[in-house]
Amino acid sequence: MSKQPIGIFDSGVGGTSIWKEIHLLLPHENTIYLADSANAPYGTKSKEAIVNLSIKNTAYLINQGCKIIVVACNTATTNAIHILRQNYNIPIIGIEPAIKPAALNTQTKCVGILATKGTLSSELFHKTTDLFANNITVIERIGEGIVELIETGQLYSEAMKVLLKSYLKPMLDANIDYLVLGCTHYPYLMPLLLELLPQHVKIIDSGEAVARQTKAVLEKNGLLNTQTIKGKTAFYTNANPAIMASLLDNKFDVEYLNF
Ligand code: DGL
Protein backbone atom coordinates (compact mmCIF):
# COMPACT_ATOMS: atom_id res chain seq x y z
CA MET A 1 0.00 0.00 0.00
CA SER A 2 2.80 2.49 0.81
CA LYS A 3 3.96 2.44 -2.83
CA GLN A 4 0.51 3.54 -3.98
CA PRO A 5 0.29 7.20 -5.08
CA ILE A 6 -0.88 10.25 -3.19
CA GLY A 7 -3.95 11.56 -5.04
CA ILE A 8 -4.28 15.34 -5.26
CA PHE A 9 -7.09 17.31 -6.86
CA ASP A 10 -8.20 20.88 -7.39
CA SER A 11 -10.84 22.67 -9.44
CA GLY A 12 -7.98 23.45 -11.79
CA VAL A 13 -4.29 24.26 -12.03
CA GLY A 14 -3.95 26.11 -8.70
CA GLY A 15 -3.48 23.01 -6.57
CA THR A 16 -0.16 22.44 -8.31
CA SER A 17 1.12 25.01 -5.77
CA ILE A 18 0.26 22.41 -3.11
CA TRP A 19 1.65 19.54 -5.19
CA LYS A 20 4.98 21.45 -5.26
CA GLU A 21 5.08 21.63 -1.45
CA ILE A 22 4.23 17.93 -1.14
CA HIS A 23 6.82 16.93 -3.73
CA LEU A 24 9.45 19.04 -1.98
CA LEU A 25 8.79 17.46 1.41
CA LEU A 26 8.08 13.93 0.15
CA PRO A 27 10.15 13.51 -3.04
CA HIS A 28 9.98 9.70 -2.91
CA GLU A 29 6.21 9.57 -3.01
CA ASN A 30 4.37 8.74 -6.23
CA THR A 31 1.68 11.32 -6.98
CA ILE A 32 -1.33 11.75 -9.25
CA TYR A 33 -2.68 15.26 -9.76
CA LEU A 34 -6.13 15.94 -11.21
CA ALA A 35 -7.06 19.41 -12.46
CA ASP A 36 -10.81 19.65 -13.02
CA SER A 37 -10.29 22.78 -15.11
CA ALA A 38 -13.26 22.02 -17.38
CA ASN A 39 -15.43 22.74 -14.32
CA ALA A 40 -13.44 25.66 -12.89
CA PRO A 41 -14.15 27.83 -11.09
CA TYR A 42 -15.76 25.94 -8.22
CA GLY A 43 -15.93 29.10 -6.11
CA THR A 44 -19.04 30.45 -7.79
CA LYS A 45 -20.95 27.13 -7.71
CA SER A 46 -23.52 25.90 -5.20
CA LYS A 47 -22.44 23.76 -2.26
CA GLU A 48 -24.22 20.79 -3.83
CA ALA A 49 -22.33 21.19 -7.12
CA ILE A 50 -19.00 21.51 -5.28
CA VAL A 51 -19.78 18.35 -3.27
CA ASN A 52 -20.67 16.37 -6.42
CA LEU A 53 -17.53 17.47 -8.28
CA SER A 54 -15.38 16.67 -5.24
CA ILE A 55 -16.90 13.17 -5.04
CA LYS A 56 -16.26 12.63 -8.78
CA ASN A 57 -12.57 13.61 -8.41
CA THR A 58 -12.04 11.58 -5.24
CA ALA A 59 -13.69 8.49 -6.72
CA TYR A 60 -11.45 8.75 -9.78
CA LEU A 61 -8.29 8.96 -7.66
CA ILE A 62 -9.37 6.11 -5.41
CA ASN A 63 -10.01 3.97 -8.50
CA GLN A 64 -6.41 4.69 -9.48
CA GLY A 65 -5.36 3.09 -6.19
CA CYS A 66 -4.44 6.25 -4.27
CA LYS A 67 -3.60 5.63 -0.58
CA ILE A 68 -4.50 9.14 0.57
CA ILE A 69 -6.35 12.08 -0.97
CA VAL A 70 -5.23 15.69 -0.70
CA VAL A 71 -8.01 18.13 -1.50
CA ALA A 72 -5.77 20.92 -2.83
CA CYS A 73 -8.66 23.34 -3.03
CA ASN A 74 -9.97 25.57 -0.23
CA THR A 75 -13.40 25.74 -1.86
CA ALA A 76 -13.77 21.96 -2.09
CA THR A 77 -12.38 21.48 1.43
CA THR A 78 -14.61 24.01 3.14
CA ASN A 79 -17.74 22.76 1.34
CA ALA A 80 -17.22 19.05 0.91
CA ILE A 81 -14.51 17.49 3.07
CA HIS A 82 -16.89 16.25 5.77
CA ILE A 83 -18.88 14.40 3.10
CA LEU A 84 -15.77 12.93 1.47
CA ARG A 85 -14.63 11.68 4.88
CA GLN A 86 -18.04 10.10 5.45
CA ASN A 87 -17.99 8.38 2.04
CA TYR A 88 -14.42 7.05 1.89
CA ASN A 89 -12.29 5.28 4.43
CA ILE A 90 -8.82 6.35 3.33
CA PRO A 91 -7.19 9.44 4.89
CA ILE A 92 -8.35 12.72 3.34
CA ILE A 93 -6.36 15.92 3.89
CA GLY A 94 -7.87 19.34 3.22
CA ILE A 95 -6.71 22.92 2.99
CA GLU A 96 -8.23 25.90 4.75
CA PRO A 97 -7.23 29.58 4.78
CA ALA A 98 -4.43 30.28 7.31
CA ILE A 99 -6.53 32.63 9.42
CA LYS A 100 -5.12 31.29 12.70
CA PRO A 101 -1.43 32.24 12.25
CA ALA A 102 -2.43 35.61 10.79
CA ALA A 103 -4.76 36.34 13.74
CA LEU A 104 -2.15 35.26 16.28
CA ASN A 105 0.63 37.39 14.82
CA THR A 106 -1.04 40.57 13.60
CA GLN A 107 0.23 43.77 15.24
CA THR A 108 -2.31 46.07 13.61
CA LYS A 109 -5.17 43.76 14.70
CA CYS A 110 -6.36 43.76 11.13
CA VAL A 111 -5.80 41.05 8.52
CA GLY A 112 -6.98 40.61 4.95
CA ILE A 113 -8.22 37.44 3.32
CA LEU A 114 -8.63 36.84 -0.37
CA ALA A 115 -10.58 33.70 -1.26
CA THR A 116 -13.45 32.44 -3.40
CA LYS A 117 -17.11 33.11 -2.70
CA GLY A 118 -17.56 29.40 -1.96
CA THR A 119 -14.86 29.46 0.73
CA LEU A 120 -15.85 32.75 2.35
CA SER A 121 -19.50 31.72 2.57
CA SER A 122 -18.82 28.26 3.98
CA GLU A 123 -19.72 27.20 7.51
CA LEU A 124 -16.22 25.84 8.10
CA PHE A 125 -14.62 29.18 7.25
CA HIS A 126 -16.99 31.02 9.60
CA LYS A 127 -16.29 28.56 12.39
CA THR A 128 -12.52 28.96 12.02
CA THR A 129 -12.77 32.75 11.86
CA ASP A 130 -15.04 32.90 14.93
CA LEU A 131 -12.66 30.65 16.82
CA PHE A 132 -9.36 32.35 16.06
CA ALA A 133 -10.11 35.87 14.87
CA ASN A 134 -12.98 37.18 16.98
CA ASN A 135 -10.86 39.91 18.59
CA ILE A 136 -9.40 41.32 15.38
CA THR A 137 -10.76 42.84 12.16
CA VAL A 138 -10.84 40.54 9.16
CA ILE A 139 -11.28 42.22 5.78
CA GLU A 140 -12.68 39.59 3.41
CA ARG A 141 -12.59 39.98 -0.35
CA ILE A 142 -13.85 37.56 -2.98
CA GLY A 143 -11.18 37.16 -5.63
CA GLU A 144 -13.72 37.32 -8.43
CA GLY A 145 -12.18 36.58 -11.82
CA ILE A 146 -8.70 35.64 -10.58
CA VAL A 147 -9.10 31.88 -11.02
CA GLU A 148 -10.56 32.38 -14.52
CA LEU A 149 -7.55 34.48 -15.58
CA ILE A 150 -5.06 31.91 -14.25
CA GLU A 151 -6.97 29.05 -15.88
CA THR A 152 -6.78 30.81 -19.25
CA GLY A 153 -3.07 31.56 -19.04
CA GLN A 154 -3.46 35.26 -18.14
CA LEU A 155 -1.55 35.23 -14.86
CA TYR A 156 0.67 38.21 -15.61
CA SER A 157 -1.93 40.27 -17.48
CA GLU A 158 -2.95 43.88 -17.05
CA ALA A 159 -6.46 42.62 -16.22
CA MET A 160 -5.04 40.67 -13.27
CA LYS A 161 -3.23 43.74 -11.93
CA VAL A 162 -6.41 45.80 -12.14
CA LEU A 163 -8.38 43.14 -10.23
CA LEU A 164 -5.74 42.71 -7.56
CA LYS A 165 -5.38 46.45 -6.97
CA SER A 166 -9.13 46.77 -6.43
CA TYR A 167 -9.25 43.81 -3.99
CA LEU A 168 -6.22 45.00 -2.02
CA LYS A 169 -7.27 48.66 -1.71
CA PRO A 170 -9.87 48.23 1.09
CA MET A 171 -7.44 45.98 2.94
CA LEU A 172 -4.63 48.51 2.76
CA ASP A 173 -7.01 51.31 3.70
CA ALA A 174 -7.90 49.31 6.83
CA ASN A 175 -4.18 48.87 7.67
CA ILE A 176 -3.76 45.09 7.37
CA ASP A 177 -0.35 43.65 8.18
CA TYR A 178 -1.19 40.09 7.02
CA LEU A 179 -2.75 38.94 3.77
CA VAL A 180 -4.09 35.38 3.84
CA LEU A 181 -4.23 33.64 0.47
CA GLY A 182 -7.32 31.46 0.80
CA CYS A 183 -7.23 29.78 -2.61
CA THR A 184 -4.58 27.45 -3.98
CA HIS A 185 -4.42 29.37 -7.26
CA TYR A 186 -3.23 32.50 -5.44
CA PRO A 187 0.36 31.53 -4.53
CA TYR A 188 1.01 32.01 -8.26
CA LEU A 189 0.15 35.70 -7.74
CA MET A 190 3.13 36.15 -5.42
CA PRO A 191 5.32 38.21 -7.81
CA LEU A 192 2.39 40.58 -8.50
CA LEU A 193 1.42 40.81 -4.83
CA LEU A 194 4.98 41.65 -3.83
CA GLU A 195 4.89 44.44 -6.36
CA LEU A 196 1.52 45.79 -5.18
CA LEU A 197 1.80 45.44 -1.40
CA PRO A 198 3.92 47.53 0.95
CA GLN A 199 6.82 45.59 2.46
CA HIS A 200 5.39 45.38 5.96
CA VAL A 201 2.39 43.31 4.79
CA LYS A 202 3.17 39.62 5.16
CA ILE A 203 1.57 37.13 2.80
CA ILE A 204 0.70 33.68 4.07
CA ASP A 205 -0.84 30.55 2.64
CA SER A 206 -1.37 27.01 3.87
CA GLY A 207 0.68 25.03 1.33
CA GLU A 208 3.60 24.06 3.54
CA ALA A 209 1.31 23.16 6.44
CA VAL A 210 -0.70 20.85 4.18
CA ALA A 211 2.46 19.08 3.04
CA ARG A 212 3.55 18.61 6.68
CA GLN A 213 0.11 17.32 7.61
CA THR A 214 0.16 14.89 4.67
CA LYS A 215 3.51 13.54 5.86
CA ALA A 216 2.31 13.22 9.45
CA VAL A 217 -0.85 11.33 8.43
CA LEU A 218 1.08 8.98 6.13
CA GLU A 219 3.55 8.29 8.96
CA LYS A 220 0.79 7.67 11.49
CA ASN A 221 -0.91 5.19 9.17
CA GLY A 222 2.31 3.40 8.17
CA LEU A 223 1.83 4.61 4.58
CA LEU A 224 5.08 6.51 3.94
CA ASN A 225 6.81 5.29 0.80
CA THR A 226 10.23 4.02 1.86
CA GLN A 227 11.67 3.82 -1.65
CA THR A 228 14.78 5.93 -2.18
CA ILE A 229 14.25 6.74 -5.85
CA LYS A 230 12.33 9.84 -6.93
CA GLY A 231 8.57 9.29 -6.98
CA LYS A 232 6.62 9.01 -10.24
CA THR A 233 4.37 11.93 -11.10
CA ALA A 234 1.24 12.02 -13.25
CA PHE A 235 -0.57 15.26 -14.08
CA TYR A 236 -4.01 15.13 -15.66
CA THR A 237 -6.31 17.92 -16.78
CA ASN A 238 -9.64 17.89 -18.56
CA ALA A 239 -8.79 21.25 -20.23
CA ASN A 240 -5.63 22.72 -21.77
CA PRO A 241 -2.46 20.79 -20.74
CA ALA A 242 -0.13 23.59 -21.94
CA ILE A 243 -1.41 26.09 -19.35
CA MET A 244 -0.84 23.64 -16.52
CA ALA A 245 2.57 22.60 -17.87
CA SER A 246 3.70 26.23 -17.91
CA LEU A 247 2.88 26.58 -14.18
CA LEU A 248 5.11 23.54 -13.66
CA ASP A 249 7.87 25.36 -15.59
CA ASN A 250 7.40 22.83 -18.42
CA LYS A 251 9.38 20.30 -16.40
CA PHE A 252 6.62 17.68 -16.25
CA ASP A 253 4.33 16.04 -18.79
CA VAL A 254 0.67 16.99 -18.46
CA GLU A 255 -1.91 14.76 -20.12
CA TYR A 256 -5.41 15.53 -21.24
CA LEU A 257 -7.92 13.19 -19.59
CA ASN A 258 -11.68 13.26 -19.86
CA PHE A 259 -12.60 12.43 -16.26
N1 DGL B 1 -8.00 26.49 -6.06
C1 DGL B 1 -9.36 26.63 -5.63
C2 DGL B 1 -9.41 27.00 -4.16
O1 DGL B 1 -8.45 26.82 -3.45
C3 DGL B 1 -10.04 27.57 -6.58
C4 DGL B 1 -11.50 27.55 -6.47
C5 DGL B 1 -12.28 27.84 -7.70
O2 DGL B 1 -12.18 27.05 -8.63
O3 DGL B 1 -13.02 28.82 -7.68
O4 DGL B 1 -10.41 27.45 -3.63
Question: What do these coordinates show?
Answer:
- This protein has 259 residues and is α/β, with parallel strands linked by helices.
- The chain has two domains: 6-95 and 207-256, Rossmann fold, CATH 3.40.50; 99-204, Rossmann fold, CATH 3.40.50.
- It has helices at 16-25, 47-63, 74-87, 99-105, 117-120, 123-132, 146-151, 158-173, 190-196, 207-220, 241-247, and strands at residues 6-10, 31-35, 68-71, 92-93, 110-115, 137-142, 178-182, 202-204, 233-237, 254-256.
- Strands 4-3-1-2-9-10 form a six-stranded parallel sheet, sandwiched between helices. The chain has a four-stranded parallel sheet with strand order 6-5-7-8, sandwiched between helices.
- Helix 9 links the parallel strand 7 (178-182) and strand 8 (202-204).
- Helix 1 packs across helix 10 (207-220) and helix 2 (47-63) crosses helix 3 (74-87).
- The two termini are 24 Å apart.
- The relative contact order is 0.20.
- The structure holds D-glutamic acid.
- Residues 10-12, 14-15, 40-43, 73-75, 116, 119, 147, 183-185 line the site of D-glutamic acid.
Q: In brief, what are we looking at here?
A:
The chain is α/β, with parallel strands linked by helices and 259 residues long. The chain is 43% helix and 17% strand.
